[in-house]
Design a protein that fits this description.
The structure is a homodimer. Chain A contains five helices and three strands, in the order ααβααββα. By secondary structure, chain A is of the alpha+beta class. The first copy, chain A, is elongated, with a radius of gyration of 22 Å. The first copy, chain A, binds a DNA duplex through α4.
Chain lengths: ~120, ~120
DNA sequence: TTGTTGTTCAACCATATGGTTGAATATCTA
DNA sequence: TAGATATTCAACCATATGGTTGAACAACAA
Protein backbone atom coordinates (compact mmCIF):
# COMPACT_ATOMS: atom_id res chain seq x y z
CA UNK A 1 0.00 0.00 0.00
CA UNK A 2 1.17 3.46 -0.82
CA UNK A 3 1.36 5.94 2.05
CA UNK A 4 -0.59 9.16 1.80
CA UNK A 5 -0.02 12.27 3.84
CA UNK A 6 -1.89 15.48 3.22
CA UNK A 7 1.14 17.67 2.75
CA UNK A 8 2.13 21.19 1.90
CA UNK A 9 2.47 19.95 -1.66
CA UNK A 10 -1.29 19.45 -1.83
CA UNK A 11 -1.95 22.97 -0.66
CA UNK A 12 0.43 24.49 -3.18
CA UNK A 13 -0.74 22.39 -6.11
CA UNK A 14 -4.41 22.91 -5.29
CA UNK A 15 -3.88 26.63 -4.88
CA UNK A 16 -2.06 26.84 -8.17
CA UNK A 17 -4.52 24.62 -10.06
CA UNK A 18 -7.02 27.46 -10.28
CA UNK A 19 -6.40 29.91 -13.15
CA UNK A 20 -7.77 32.85 -11.18
CA UNK A 21 -5.29 32.17 -8.41
CA UNK A 22 -2.44 31.86 -10.88
CA UNK A 23 -3.49 35.23 -12.28
CA UNK A 24 -3.47 36.69 -8.77
CA UNK A 25 0.05 35.40 -8.23
CA UNK A 26 1.11 36.97 -11.53
CA UNK A 27 -0.46 40.22 -10.39
CA UNK A 28 1.43 40.11 -7.10
CA UNK A 29 4.68 39.29 -8.87
CA UNK A 30 4.64 42.77 -10.36
CA UNK A 31 3.67 44.54 -7.14
CA UNK A 32 2.19 44.02 -3.70
CA UNK A 33 -1.46 45.01 -3.57
CA UNK A 34 -4.50 45.40 -1.34
CA UNK A 35 -7.53 43.13 -1.65
CA UNK A 36 -9.51 45.89 -3.37
CA UNK A 37 -6.74 46.57 -5.87
CA UNK A 38 -6.56 42.92 -6.85
CA UNK A 39 -10.33 42.52 -7.02
CA UNK A 40 -10.55 45.35 -9.56
CA UNK A 41 -8.65 43.20 -12.08
CA UNK A 42 -11.05 40.28 -11.91
CA UNK A 43 -14.55 39.72 -13.27
CA UNK A 44 -15.94 38.53 -9.94
CA UNK A 45 -16.95 39.91 -6.58
CA UNK A 46 -14.40 41.20 -4.12
CA UNK A 47 -15.57 38.47 -1.80
CA UNK A 48 -14.62 35.79 -4.28
CA UNK A 49 -11.17 37.29 -4.63
CA UNK A 50 -10.89 37.48 -0.87
CA UNK A 51 -11.58 33.75 -0.71
CA UNK A 52 -8.94 33.00 -3.31
CA UNK A 53 -6.48 35.03 -1.30
CA UNK A 54 -7.22 32.97 1.77
CA UNK A 55 -6.46 29.83 -0.21
CA UNK A 56 -3.18 31.28 -1.46
CA UNK A 57 -2.35 32.40 2.05
CA UNK A 58 -3.15 28.92 3.34
CA UNK A 59 -0.66 27.51 0.88
CA UNK A 60 1.84 30.12 2.07
CA UNK A 61 2.18 31.45 -1.44
CA UNK A 62 1.08 34.86 -0.29
CA UNK A 63 1.85 36.88 2.81
CA UNK A 64 -0.61 39.35 4.34
CA UNK A 65 0.24 42.53 6.18
CA UNK A 66 -2.59 44.36 7.85
CA UNK A 67 -2.17 48.12 7.97
CA UNK A 68 -5.16 49.72 9.56
CA UNK A 69 -8.18 48.54 7.63
CA UNK A 70 -6.09 47.62 4.58
CA UNK A 71 -4.68 44.16 3.94
CA UNK A 72 -1.59 44.24 1.77
CA UNK A 73 -0.77 40.98 0.00
CA UNK A 74 2.69 40.02 -1.15
CA UNK A 75 3.88 37.07 -3.19
CA UNK A 76 5.94 34.52 -1.29
CA UNK A 77 7.24 32.22 -3.99
CA UNK A 78 9.46 30.32 -1.57
CA UNK A 79 6.55 28.01 -0.76
CA UNK A 80 6.64 26.93 -4.40
CA UNK A 81 10.08 25.38 -3.93
CA UNK A 82 8.94 21.95 -2.79
CA UNK A 83 6.42 21.66 -5.59
CA UNK A 84 8.98 22.83 -8.14
CA UNK A 85 11.40 20.19 -6.87
CA UNK A 86 8.69 17.53 -7.20
CA UNK A 87 8.07 18.52 -10.80
CA UNK A 88 11.74 18.68 -11.54
CA UNK A 89 12.09 15.08 -10.44
CA UNK A 90 9.72 14.05 -13.20
CA UNK A 91 11.30 16.39 -15.69
CA UNK A 92 14.59 14.59 -15.06
CA UNK A 93 12.86 11.24 -15.35
CA UNK A 94 11.62 12.30 -18.73
CA UNK A 95 15.00 13.55 -19.91
CA UNK A 96 16.67 10.32 -18.87
CA UNK A 97 14.12 8.34 -20.82
CA UNK A 98 14.79 10.46 -23.88
CA UNK A 99 18.52 10.04 -23.46
CA UNK A 100 18.14 6.29 -23.08
CA UNK A 101 15.98 6.15 -26.18
CA UNK A 102 18.49 8.23 -28.07
CA UNK A 103 21.35 5.96 -27.01
CA UNK A 104 19.37 2.94 -28.07
CA UNK A 105 18.67 4.41 -31.48
CA UNK A 106 22.31 5.34 -31.97
CA UNK A 107 23.34 1.82 -31.00
CA UNK A 108 20.94 0.32 -33.49
CA UNK A 109 22.15 2.58 -36.27
CA UNK A 110 25.74 1.47 -35.61
CA UNK A 111 24.80 -2.18 -35.73
CA UNK A 112 22.87 -1.56 -38.90
CA UNK A 113 25.91 -0.05 -40.58
CA UNK A 114 28.16 -2.95 -39.55
CA UNK A 115 25.94 -5.50 -41.23
CA UNK B 1 -9.11 42.66 -16.63
CA UNK B 2 -6.92 39.61 -16.57
CA UNK B 3 -7.38 37.11 -19.39
CA UNK B 4 -8.27 33.54 -18.52
CA UNK B 5 -7.88 30.57 -20.80
CA UNK B 6 -8.56 27.05 -19.61
CA UNK B 7 -5.21 25.64 -20.61
CA UNK B 8 -3.18 22.50 -20.44
CA UNK B 9 -1.63 23.95 -17.29
CA UNK B 10 -4.96 23.57 -15.50
CA UNK B 11 -5.21 19.94 -16.46
CA UNK B 12 -1.70 19.15 -15.29
CA UNK B 13 -1.94 21.08 -12.03
CA UNK B 14 -5.38 19.68 -11.22
CA UNK B 15 -4.21 16.16 -12.01
CA UNK B 16 -1.16 16.56 -9.84
CA UNK B 17 -3.01 18.24 -6.96
CA UNK B 18 -4.43 14.90 -5.83
CA UNK B 19 -2.09 12.83 -3.65
CA UNK B 20 -3.44 9.55 -4.99
CA UNK B 21 -2.64 10.63 -8.51
CA UNK B 22 0.84 11.74 -7.51
CA UNK B 23 1.33 8.31 -5.97
CA UNK B 24 0.16 6.69 -9.22
CA UNK B 25 2.70 8.74 -11.14
CA UNK B 26 5.41 7.63 -8.73
CA UNK B 27 4.30 4.06 -9.24
CA UNK B 28 4.51 4.42 -13.01
CA UNK B 29 7.91 6.07 -12.77
CA UNK B 30 9.34 2.77 -11.59
CA UNK B 31 7.53 0.65 -14.16
CA UNK B 32 4.63 0.61 -16.60
CA UNK B 33 1.62 -1.20 -15.18
CA UNK B 34 -1.89 -2.39 -15.90
CA UNK B 35 -4.94 -0.89 -14.20
CA UNK B 36 -5.29 -3.94 -11.95
CA UNK B 37 -1.62 -3.81 -10.94
CA UNK B 38 -1.89 -0.18 -9.93
CA UNK B 39 -5.19 -0.66 -8.13
CA UNK B 40 -3.63 -3.32 -5.90
CA UNK B 41 -1.41 -0.65 -4.35
CA UNK B 42 -4.26 1.62 -3.30
CA UNK B 43 -6.88 1.42 -0.56
CA UNK B 44 -9.78 2.06 -2.89
CA UNK B 45 -11.79 0.30 -5.54
CA UNK B 46 -10.33 -0.48 -8.93
CA UNK B 47 -12.98 1.77 -10.37
CA UNK B 48 -11.70 4.73 -8.40
CA UNK B 49 -8.19 4.08 -9.66
CA UNK B 50 -9.53 3.77 -13.19
CA UNK B 51 -11.06 7.23 -12.83
CA UNK B 52 -7.81 8.70 -11.58
CA UNK B 53 -6.06 7.19 -14.56
CA UNK B 54 -8.51 8.86 -16.90
CA UNK B 55 -7.72 12.20 -15.29
CA UNK B 56 -3.99 11.61 -15.65
CA UNK B 57 -4.52 10.52 -19.22
CA UNK B 58 -6.59 13.65 -19.86
CA UNK B 59 -3.68 15.74 -18.64
CA UNK B 60 -1.41 13.71 -20.94
CA UNK B 61 0.70 12.69 -17.97
CA UNK B 62 0.04 9.06 -18.72
CA UNK B 63 -0.15 7.10 -21.95
CA UNK B 64 -2.36 4.06 -22.39
CA UNK B 65 -1.66 1.06 -24.60
CA UNK B 66 -4.43 -1.45 -24.97
CA UNK B 67 -3.24 -5.02 -25.46
CA UNK B 68 -6.18 -7.33 -25.68
CA UNK B 69 -8.22 -6.80 -22.55
CA UNK B 70 -5.31 -5.25 -20.68
CA UNK B 71 -4.61 -1.53 -20.55
CA UNK B 72 -0.96 -0.77 -19.92
CA UNK B 73 -0.27 2.67 -18.51
CA UNK B 74 3.02 4.48 -18.91
CA UNK B 75 4.24 7.74 -17.43
CA UNK B 76 4.63 10.59 -19.89
CA UNK B 77 6.39 13.26 -17.91
CA UNK B 78 6.85 15.49 -20.94
CA UNK B 79 3.43 17.01 -20.29
CA UNK B 80 4.82 18.29 -17.00
CA UNK B 81 7.23 20.57 -18.83
CA UNK B 82 4.96 23.59 -19.16
CA UNK B 83 3.90 23.42 -15.54
CA UNK B 84 7.50 23.02 -14.42
CA UNK B 85 8.45 26.08 -16.45
CA UNK B 86 5.62 28.05 -14.87
CA UNK B 87 6.86 27.14 -11.38
CA UNK B 88 10.43 27.87 -12.31
CA UNK B 89 9.41 31.37 -13.27
CA UNK B 90 8.29 31.98 -9.70
CA UNK B 91 11.27 30.19 -8.24
CA UNK B 92 13.47 32.62 -10.14
CA UNK B 93 11.34 35.54 -8.98
CA UNK B 94 11.93 34.41 -5.44
CA UNK B 95 15.67 33.98 -5.87
CA UNK B 96 15.96 37.45 -7.36
CA UNK B 97 14.12 38.88 -4.40
CA UNK B 98 16.48 37.11 -2.04
CA UNK B 99 19.49 38.31 -3.99
CA UNK B 100 18.19 41.87 -3.95
CA UNK B 101 17.57 41.65 -0.23
CA UNK B 102 21.04 40.24 0.28
CA UNK B 103 22.59 43.04 -1.74
CA UNK B 104 20.66 45.58 0.25
CA UNK B 105 21.82 44.11 3.53
CA UNK B 106 25.42 44.02 2.36
CA UNK B 107 25.17 47.63 1.28
CA UNK B 108 23.79 48.64 4.64
CA UNK B 109 26.52 46.77 6.48
CA UNK B 110 29.18 48.60 4.45
CA UNK B 111 27.65 51.97 5.23
CA UNK B 112 27.41 51.01 8.86
CA UNK B 113 31.08 50.21 8.99
CA UNK B 114 32.06 53.51 7.41
CA UNK B 115 30.27 55.51 10.05
C1' DT C 1 -20.60 61.77 15.27
C1' DT C 2 -21.68 60.30 10.81
C1' DG C 3 -20.60 58.54 6.76
C1' DT C 4 -17.49 56.05 3.66
C1' DT C 5 -14.04 52.62 2.77
C1' DG C 6 -11.71 48.00 3.19
C1' DT C 7 -12.38 43.72 4.60
C1' DT C 8 -14.28 39.53 6.58
C1' DC C 9 -18.17 36.51 8.01
C1' DA C 10 -22.21 33.75 7.07
C1' DA C 11 -25.57 31.67 4.44
C1' DC C 12 -26.68 29.96 0.30
C1' DC C 13 -26.35 27.75 -4.48
C1' DA C 14 -24.67 25.10 -8.53
C1' DT C 15 -21.32 22.29 -10.08
C1' DA C 16 -17.10 19.47 -9.60
C1' DT C 17 -14.68 15.81 -7.30
C1' DG C 18 -13.57 11.44 -5.31
C1' DG C 19 -15.49 7.70 -3.83
C1' DT C 20 -18.95 3.70 -3.94
C1' DT C 21 -21.67 -0.35 -6.12
C1' DG C 22 -23.66 -3.03 -9.84
C1' DA C 23 -23.83 -4.07 -14.57
C1' DA C 24 -22.12 -4.32 -19.25
C1' DT C 25 -18.46 -5.50 -22.42
C1' DA C 26 -14.58 -7.68 -24.33
C1' DT C 27 -10.88 -10.86 -24.17
C1' DC C 28 -8.50 -14.88 -22.75
C1' DT C 29 -8.71 -19.86 -21.24
C1' DA C 30 -10.43 -24.56 -20.26
C1' DT D 1 -19.29 -22.90 -25.25
C1' DA D 2 -18.70 -21.51 -20.56
C1' DG D 3 -16.22 -19.45 -17.15
C1' DA D 4 -12.78 -16.17 -15.44
C1' DT D 5 -10.32 -11.89 -15.96
C1' DA D 6 -9.63 -6.87 -17.18
C1' DT D 7 -11.76 -2.90 -17.83
C1' DT D 8 -15.22 0.62 -18.56
C1' DC D 9 -19.93 2.56 -18.02
C1' DA D 10 -23.65 4.37 -15.27
C1' DA D 11 -25.96 5.74 -11.35
C1' DC D 12 -25.54 7.35 -7.05
C1' DC D 13 -23.69 9.83 -2.77
C1' DA D 14 -21.11 13.00 0.34
C1' DT D 15 -18.20 16.60 0.43
C1' DA D 16 -15.37 20.29 -1.64
C1' DT D 17 -15.11 24.27 -4.57
C1' DG D 18 -16.03 28.67 -6.62
C1' DG D 19 -19.22 31.78 -6.94
C1' DT D 20 -23.13 34.87 -5.16
C1' DT D 21 -25.50 38.26 -1.83
C1' DG D 22 -26.22 40.67 2.49
C1' DA D 23 -24.58 41.95 6.90
C1' DA D 24 -21.17 42.95 10.29
C1' DC D 25 -17.13 45.34 11.73
C1' DA D 26 -13.18 48.23 12.09
C1' DA D 27 -10.71 52.22 10.68
C1' DC D 28 -10.32 56.46 8.40
C1' DA D 29 -12.28 61.25 7.00
C1' DA D 30 -15.69 65.14 7.40
Amino acid sequence: MVEQQASQLDAVFKAVADPTRRAILARLASADARVTDIAKDFPMSLNAVSKHLRVLEGAALVRRTVVGREHVLALDASAMAEAARWMDHYRRFWEERLAALDALMTERTKKGRKK
